[in-house]
Amino acid sequence: MSTEAAPVTICPNCEARIPKQGMSLCPYCAFPLGKASDASGEDRSPIVKRLQAMEEKPEFEAALAEVPPWTPEYTQAANRQMHARVLLALGAVVAALEWVLGNGDPLSPWTVLGAALFAVGLVWLLRATALRKRLDSTKVLARSAFIVRRRSESDMKGPVTYFYELQFGDGSEGEFAYPGRGASEDPYTNGMTGVAFTRGTELLHMARVRG
Considering its fold, how many domains does the chain have in total? Predict the structure, then answer.
């Protein structure tokens, strides 16, 4: 039995690993790969045709207009930015009050505390800003999609992470990570059709449209 791993294509644009061969578009950034599409295969052609028919429905246009919710990572970065600004302001106020109302000693406990709060706030702000910049630099794609299958992973320390294998109306397909959002939200099911909002290898939202 051969132990050779299946060939993997590396997207020249986003550098994502694409295990499926012969696709004309990268499933993660829609970059042209210069290859013949594999959408003509008999096992996938019915799905592609189904999605293309779905794209003609008025519900599809409405789904495209939806705004996907923030991911937990994006929300964490936004919250960290807010907390960082509070620390920056608090540190500046503590240090300034000690300097003006105190004895002006740069090594007094209050001055040192203010400087420490300011420094921590600055580090948090820089890291959170860099994270949001990285997330914002990756384009969000909205495409007709079919959920081929779903799997999940959990390390018992945080929420479940789902992985959805999606096939798109353009014939490309790939697996996308979707962090679970707790018991208040049911995971998407196999066979679901609709508009998939993806950013890189993340699935942000799936707006259901019956295909």
Answer: 1
